[in-house]
Amino acid sequence: MIDLLRKYRRDLHRIPEDGFQEFKTKAYILNVLKDLDCEITEVAKTGVCAFFKGPEGSGSVAFRCDMDALPVTERTGAEYASTHEGFMHACGHDGNMTMALGLAQELEKRKGTLPCGVLLIFQPAEENIGGAKHICETNILEKYNVKRIFGWHLGPFEKPGVILGRPGDMMARVCHMDVIVHGKSAHCASHHKAIDAMEAACEFLCRCYKMERTEIPEGEFRLLKFGRMESGNVRNVISDCSRLQGSFRSYDDGIFEKMRSRMFAIAKDLETEFGCTIEFEMDEGYPAVRNDEELYEKAMEALQDFEVVTLRKPNMTAEDFSFYQQRVPGIFLFIGTGRKEPLHDSCFDFDESILEVGVKAWLKLLEMPL
Q1: ∠206-211-217 over CA atoms, to 5°?
Q2: Got the DSSP string for 184-239?
Q3: Exposure winner among 44, 234, 245, 343, fewest CB in 10 A?
Q4: Mean pLDDT, rounded, for 121-148
């Protein structure tokens, strides 16, 4: 199995593509699936679903992988490095697709003896676009009577193939935002004639950080951070426009809404104090990933022959797998890469032995009674 998985992974790694632009990736997946005894549905522009029939009326289990890459220039030096300049599978989605293709080959060997139907979802646009929502809106889960769903995320854990998860809260609800401060420009020698958009933006950031530290209970898992700021054109002219880019995250919807409303209130105060105007651009974000607790307990029993670690606290990263969990019970797990490089890093890579671990673990989860 490992030689075939390694081929899939390296082929896919060479052709990373942006969200909803995974045309070569889609063609590769379709080419692998075309000779297998499965029903193929093309969904959400570049997505692919493959259904393997089980006994009549048995219901189905879904396994999801993501297809898109990141706008990162690869620096691994690997012979299978990206051939698409400026894009790289720096989050391990090539590994996720490979495990799903490997599972497809195993399902083909077991046709006629499968305990239930199996739906493999090759999902586009997980990074920042929310391709999972588009898949769910096709009602593909309902069409194939999916009763539960499983998904992976590679994680930079030094031991390869270790499986990590937790019941309940797993990954955070997230909202990405741009905050645009509009002021008035003037030469710095006449700064009294200006409305300093840069100062107002800095004040907004500091007040938001203070709010998050002091107004949200200490025990609540949450995050509010800005990672990018653009302002001004030259050193001696007061900036008339500043843009902050960041995100806020939580598990509790009440905390999430409180942070959002308090940011609006802070902006209102600054508009009065500075005479500026502040606008927000916020995406819809992803709901929190919450592992079904009863299903998680059963999954841990099924995976008892694997090395499994229960995480002490939830992760503050986000994943659109949560859209599936709003429709059917689902479990989302991490699998260790055996490497130290963080996700989204230009040197990200993983020990390819984990691919076989992932396929075998999915087969064990498939054996769980519906």
Answers
A1: 145
A2: B-EEGGGGGGSB-HHHHHHHHHHHHHHHHHHHS-TTS-EEEEEEEEEE-SSTTEE-
A3: 234
A4: 96
